[in-house]
Write a structure and sequence with these properties.
The protein is α/β, with parallel strands linked by helices. Helices cover 52% and strands 19% of the residues. Strand 2 and strand 3 (69-71) form a beta hairpin. Bound molecules: ligand C2E and calcium ion (3 copies).
Length: 279
């Protein structure tokens, strides 16, 4: 039994070393990824299912490295935070997203929103408002067409400072969306304190919804909560008709997911807009 334990320990530490070596390798590539043009931004349409109209898109990072292949954002964003380049990366995302959104004008009748994910670390560093204003000025995008997607963890940590920063954004006319709602710990009373406009139902609650009573109950609770707070709702990760109909029946207007479209490169997104216009 003793040697078993040691083997387990051995295996474990080897495994851990391998993970950290892999992360080190990824981090080393990540430092130069922007400069080497390996990073791009994709856009996933958001649709109003009552009007059957596009309302905007969420900007999502993509990274292709010749050696590592495609690295998903869930893997490299935490590393970007660790090695201290999330601000630089985040500023790049903001500028690209606003620039692209300007190109959408004229391709469709609607005033489209662009949503940008911001990591809690970008708030902590404190230059986010300056970077947002710069991206808007350089691109010429009106501030009410920019949406920032923040996560629950931001509301939980150091809330007074984050609260005042969020108020600054709201005062600028920028819309704030609470992403991944329900996956953390925020309560109704907590969320109420923040100047939010939109609540996003996390895709983990939508996934398998049609066969899972617990998920249905949870989604109903989230919808009721958003209504009581006067927040708009967006459901993400909608993949099939049953999920869409469930949401429609409950009056959720805006959805995002593979049933409409996966995230698209900028050119394909513009084609998506033109096709929508024709139909
Ligand atoms: P998120 O903000 O919750 O983004 C939604 C994720 O769901 C995206 O994954 C999107 O591609 C995926 N998705 C969309 N529709 C469907 C669907 O119908 N089914 C399923 N299974 N998935 C769907 P992605 O692009 O891999 O991004 C993962 C996470 O990485 C994002 O989660 C976000 O937290 C983070 N991320 C991506 N881009 C950025 C960025 O520019 N800045 C920051 N800070 N985080 C980002
Ligand atoms: Ca998001
Ligand atoms: Ca989410
Ligand atoms: Ca997320």
């Amino acid at each position: 039994a003793k040697s078993d334990g040691r083997n387990t320990y051995h295996f474990f530490s080897q495994e851990m070393r391998r993970i950290s070596e892999k992360q080190l390798l990824i981090s080393n590539h990540l430092r130069y990824a922007l400069a080497k043009n390996e990073i791009s931004l994709f856009f996933q349409p958001k649709i109003d299912i009552t009007l059957n109209q596009i309302t905007g898109a969420e900007a999502l990072l993509r990274w292709h490295n010749p050696e590592l292949g495609d690295v998903p954002p869930s893997e490299f964003i935490p590393l970007a935070e660790n090695i201290g380049i999330i601000s630089e990366l985040g500023a790049w995302v903001l500028q690209q997203a606003c620039n692209e959104a300007m190109k959408w004008q004229g391709l469709t009748k609607q005033r489209l929103q662009v949503s940008v994910n911001v990591s809690p670390q970008q708030f902590r560093i404190g230059s986010l408002l300056k970077e947002v204003k710069k991206a808007l000025t350089v691109s010429g995008l009106p501030s009410d067409q920019l949406e920032l997607e923040i996560t629950e963890s931001l509301l939980l940590q150091d809330s007074e400072q984050n609260l005042s920063q969020l108020r600054d954004f709201a005062d600028q006319g920028i819309r704030l969306s609470l992403d991944d709602f329900g996956t953390g710990y925020s309560s109704l009373s907590y969320v109420r304190r923040f100047p939010l406009h939109i609540l996003k139902i996390d895709r983990s609650f939508i996934h398998g919804l049609e066969n899972d009573l617990n998920h249905k109950v949870l989604v109903d609770a989230i919808i009721a909560m958003a209504r009581s707070l006067n927040l708009e709702l967006v459901a993400e990760g909608v993949e099939n008709k049953q999920q869409l109909e469930f949401l429609r029946q409950r009056g959720v207007r805006t959805i995002q997911g593979y049933i409409i479209s996966p995230p698209l490169n900028p050119e394909d997104f513009r084609k998506f807009l033109k096709n929508e216009h024709q139909s």
